[in-house]
Amino acid sequence: MASKMASCIFCKIIKGDIPCFKLYESEKTLAFLDINPLSRGHALVIPKFHGAKLTDIPDEQLSEILPIAKKLVTATGAVEYNILQNNGRGAHQEVDHVHFHMIPKPNAEEGLGVGWPQQKTDMDKLKALFEDIKGKM
């Protein structure tokens, strides 16, 4: 873990080794502007706790994430926006440190573009899946 943290760009930003346009900072959370934005005001909210995927982060380290994302929405004046968090390369994650994007969607060209490949539903299979997942909650 230490070697991954040492090479992690977000951990370097947290430590102050790499500068950022810091919008918010507390003991466990950092928010800053994305330097490759999809739209004006695109920002990242990250837990300071290093973990690659959401399931690697203790619950108490996530408590400020959505409240800070809401503050960013208000501060940027975004009316339509996406809150995005990716886990793994196949799910479009590029930095292996949990991060949440707040991406304003001012028009059709700017912001996040999303495909939504819906699948046909077999109600019997859906009920079996429901029972399986609910049993593990």
UniProtKB/TrEMBL annotation:
Domain called HIT: residue spans: 9-112
Cofactor(s) essential for the protein: Mg(2+)
Motif Histidine triad motif, chain ranges: 97-101
Protein name per its UniProtKB record: Adenosine 5'-monophosphoramidase HNT1
Keyword Ligase: no
One BP term from GO: nucleotide metabolic process
Record field: catalytic activity: adenosine 5'-phosphoramidate + H2O = NH4(+) + AMP
Organism: Podospora didyma
SUPFAM superfamilies, per the entry: HIT-like
Active site: H99
Keyword match Hydrolase: yes
Family the entry assigns: Belongs to the HINT family.
Molecular function terms from GO: hydrolase activity; nucleotide binding
Pfam families: HIT (PF01230)
Alphabetical keyword list: Hydrolase, Magnesium, Nucleotide-binding
Database matches in InterPro entries: HINT, Histidine_triad_CS, Histidine_triad_HIT, HIT-like, HIT-like_sf
